[in-house]
Write a structure and sequence with these properties.
Blueprint (H helix, E strand, L loop, with lengths): L1 E2 L2 E2 L6 E5 L8 H14 L3 E6 L2 H4 L21 H8 L6 H11 L2 E6 L2 H9 L5 E3 L7 H8 L5 E4 L5 H13 L5 E6 L14 H9 L2 E6 L5 H8 L4 E5 L17 H18 L8 H6 L5 E4 L14 E4 L10 H4 L21
Parallel strand pairs: 3-4, 3-10, 4-5, 6-7, 7-8, 8-9, 9-10
Antiparallel strand pairs: 1-2, 11-12
Helix pairs in contact: 1-4, 1-10, 6-7, 9-10
Length: 345
């Protein structure tokens, strides 16, 4: 699955900096956040494309007041999204800035009008947010565009995931990333459940990944070691600027450290191979082999007293010790000589 310039299955973990509401209403802040994401080592910047009116209605009935044990409790849905949305008139400038920086830019659309708008910007991929994974008409419409689609699973059970994936494939789209996500803000690390990363790949045949709301970089590292190919984290210039997502977003220093840790984790995972590197081959010098450990006269018997398995590893293989015991030396041999077949009869 290729997104922008990167094959996310073969070219290393695809690291996404999520802008979300972290522009705090300032286009210049949004642009500088994109530049900082590039400095931090991100591969992509992701936006969210909605308005308060495309997500909900303005209503103060009890159903529309947030009371989910979140940092946004007490607000109405409309109030939250009115304060958090990214103006659509900014998108062209944000896409252009990302292109100048060499970052892939794409977005989470929240209705069909947003998809149509992003198509006009040649968005290279789409992300379905956790809370939209049950919006099958939206998923079908996005999938019909034939571009990679990344699904976040924060509120999804098995049936929800299967239905969403079936919807994509029914539209002829099998370019699917599936992200383990915990929809708490911030998310407790004990609820990360990174065991789902290999499960997603094996059960569903998708590109597995992580959309992370925990604090710190432990979970992204663990995800990488378990096979995650996509990692998304909220990114902010400085948490002091505030905003709905500030408390669980990484600043530039933290994101840079996470990227470094993920890249090192990738290197540590490596690949299945029994072939030794040159350094490992050199390490064989420290292995055991058979050496003559006493001065020997021609005709003497080989015993465990005069031949031993010791370091270094330039002599005969230790497995030959039982074979050579009881044989005789053909010549005089000095202590510290490698045992070789040419001196044995």
């Amino acid at each position: 699955m290729k997104i922008g310039h990167k094959n996310v299955e073969d070219d290393g973990v695809f690291i996404i900096a999520e802008l979300s509401a972290n522009h705090n209403g300032s286009l210049e802040t949004a642009l500088e956040t994109i530049r900082a994401a590039k400095r931090s080592g991100a591969d992509a910047i992701k936006l969210q494309t909605y308005t308060a009116d495309t997500l909900t209605i303005e209503c103060d009935k009890d159903d529309f007041i947030i009371k989910a044990g979140s940092i946004w409790d007490g607000k109405t849905f409309h109030e939250l999204y009115r304060s958090a949305f990214t103006p659509w008139e900014w998108h062209q400038a944000l896409f252009d800035c990302a292109k100048e920086e060499g970052l892939t830019c794409f977005s989470s659309p929240f209705d069909k009008t947003a998809v149509d708008f992003l198509e006009g910007l040649n968005a290279p991929a789409y992300k379905i947010a956790s809370f939209e994974i049950t919006d099958i008409p939206l998923i079908e419409y996005v999938a019909s565009k034939g571009k990679p689609i990344i699904l976040s699973t924060g509120i999804a059970g098995l049936e929800d995931i299967e239905l969403a994936l079936d919807s994509c494939r029914r539209m002829g789209n099998d370019q699917i990333g599936l992200l383990k996500c915990t929809s708490s803000y911030p998310a407790p690390i004990e609820e990360a459940n990174m065991a789902m990363i290999p499960e997603f790949k094996e059960r569903f045949g998708v590109v597995p990944g992580l959309s992370d709301h925990t604090l710190g970089n432990t979970v992204p590292i663990v995800a990488t070691t378990l096979g995650a190919k996509i990692i998304e984290k909220h990114f902010i210039l400085d948490r002091s600027i505030g905003g709905p997502d500030a408390s669980f977003s990484m600043n530039e220093e933290e994101f840079t450290a996470m990227v470094k840790a993920v890249r090192e984790a990738e290197q540590a995972v490596g690949k299945v191979s029994y072939e030794l590197t040159e350094k490992q081959k050199k390490g064989k010098d420290f292995s055991r082999s058979l050496y003559v450990v006493k001065d020997i006269k021609k005709g003497e018997l080989i015993t465990e007293e005069n031949v031993r398995s010791i370091r270094p590893g330039f002599g005969m293989h230790p497995k030959e010790l039982k074979t050579v015991i009881g044989k005789r030396f053909l010549i005089d041999v000095e202590k510290g000589s490698r045992l070789e077949l040419s001196v044995i009869v």
